Amino acid sequence: MEIKARSARGARGLEGAYYTSADIFEVETERIFNRQWLYAGRSAALAEAGDYMTVTVEGEALLLVRGTGGGMKAFFNSCRHRGTRLCSESKGHLGSSIQCPYHAWTYGLDGHLMVAPNMGEAGDFDRANFPLMEVSVGEWEGFAFVSFSSEPRALEQVMKPLTERLAHRGLGQLEVAHRVEYDIQANWKLLVQNYSECYHCPKLHPVLNQLTPYRNSTNDLEEGPILGGPMRMSIEGGSMTMSGNRCAVPLTGVEGEDLNLVYYYTLFPNMFLSLAPDYVLVHQLLRQSPGRTLLNCDWLAAPAAASDPDVDFSGAVEFWAMTNEQDWRICEASQVGVGARSYTPGPYADLESMVAASDRHYLQRLGHHLSGAGLD
Question: pTM higher than 0.90 for the full model?
Answer without folding.
Answer: yes
